[in-house]
Design a protein that fits this description.
Order of helices and strands of chain B: HHHHHHHHHHH
Distance between the termini of chain A: 43 Å
Order of helices and strands of chain A: HHHEEHH
Largest interface: A-B, 73 and 95 residues
Helix content of chain B: over 70%
Number of helices of chain B: 11
Helix content of chain A: over 70%
Mean pLDDT of chain B: 86
Radius of gyration of chain A: 20 Å
Distance between the termini of chain B: 38 Å
Structural class of chain A: mainly alpha
Radius of gyration of chain B: 19 Å
Number of strands of chain A: 2
Oligomer: heterodimer
Mean pLDDT of chain A: 87
Chain lengths: 106, 244
């Protein structure tokens, strides 16, 4: 398929998830229970992305000490918990990752 | 000050607040955008104009990454398009969450706000919307956040595309981890009580168990289980800062 047809298809597939629900639901009220459930969406999606990205390597649990992303994630979570600062979390998390990689035996 | 210029300064303040609150996420998007641009063109999977068009028209980091990965694996175009649709389904939940705060707006407002809706602007706006009392100017706040994200994304993928013609192996720098650490910094402050803790543990655990499912379906399933856990836990232990 032509490259630009493919990109147009991906663009339409993306917009189909963004625009119609916004148009539809801004005109009516959601049931209260559903609204309560929706506040948990961001945390649930983020957790479902983070845990496998950090704890799995090739589909298996990777809890050993040379898992640099795991060490950096623990530090990042602690920094975020104590400071609530996103920038500081990113910076210290990335520094931990690079140091851990550099210092752990290959 | 006339009432008209006062109105303008209120709008400007709302847009600037949206952009300012999005700033850490703009920084977080840099490694993503750089790597996307570099991967898309360095392997020859997309032409530089094609990668530029994808950032301009799709504007969804994870979908763009996955599209490059699938094209690299020789996946047929229809499957690429379907997969990006599934990966993007979470936007429906975002739109449903924001929509009650954007009621009474005409379609000429909702179309661009929807077009530019991303994970980052959603998280920033959902937090702000829940804390502010009046619905006035919420659309300006969201617009400020979205325009900041969009222009940042165009610029940084363009840099990545330029670099992609030089760099050989961008992922080996460990920069893909920048996404994860950004998400951790967004997630931790959301945990305010037992229900949100249940959401994190159940969605995370289910995400581990379901990671083998194709097309990121494991992600959707894990997120739904996490939401169900939060709603159930809330019945037993109400969130400390729960609103009526």
């Amino acid at each position: 398929m032509n490259e630009f047809l493919l990109i147009a298809g991906i663009a339409v597939a993306t917009m189909a998830t963004r625009i119609p629900v916004l148009l539809w639901l801004s005109r009516r009220k959601l049931p209260k229970g559903l609204f309560r459930a929706l506040k948990y969406v961001p945390g649930a999606v983020l957790s479902a992305i983070i845990f496998p990205a950090v704890l799995l390597a090739d589909g298996k649990l990777a809890l050993q000490a040379d898992n640099a992303p795991l060490a950096a994630s623990v530090i990042a979570a602690l920094v975020s918990w104590r400071t609530r600062s996103l920038l500081l979390t990113i910076i210290l998390g990335m520094i931990t990752l690079f140091l851990w990689k550099a210092l752990s035996p290959a | 000050m006339t009432s008209r210029s006062k109105h303008h300064s209120v709008i400007r303040a709302a847009m600037l607040a949206g952009a300012r609150d999005t700033f850490p996420l703009l920084v977080g998007a840099w490694p993503f955008g750089l790597i996307f641009g570099a991967l898309a063109v360095s392997g020859g999977f997309f032409s530089p104009p094609g990668a530029t068009a994808m950032s301009a028209l799709v504007f969804a980091g994870s979908a763009q990454f996955i599209a490059v990965g699938l094209v690299a694996a020789g996946t047929p175009a229809t499957i690429v398009i379907l997969t990006t649709f599934v990966v993007n389904l979470r936007h429906m939940l975002y739109a449903a969450t924001l929509a009650p705060h954007l009621s009474k707006l005409p379609a000429r407002w909702l179309l661009p706000l929807g077009f530019w809706l991303t994970d980052e602007s959603f998280v920033v706006a959902a937090k702000h919307f829940e804390e502010s009392r009046s619905d006035k100017n919420k659309h300006w706040y969201l617009l400020g956040s979205e325009i900041a994200m969009y222009s940042n994304w165009q610029f940084v993928t363009w840099l990545g595309i330029l670099a992609g013609q030089q760099i050989k192996d961008p992922q080996s720098w460990g920069l893909d981890f920048a996404m994860v650490v950004t998400f951790i910094g967004m997630l931790v402050p959301m945990v305010k009580g037992l229900p949100t803790l249940a959401v994190v543990l159940v969605a995370g655990g289910a995400g581990l168990l379901a990671s083998g499912l194709p097309n990121q379906l494991g992600l959707l399933l894990a997120a739904l289980l996490g939401i169900a856990a939060g709603v159930s836990a809330e019945l037993i232990w109400p969130e400390p800062e729960a609103k009526p």
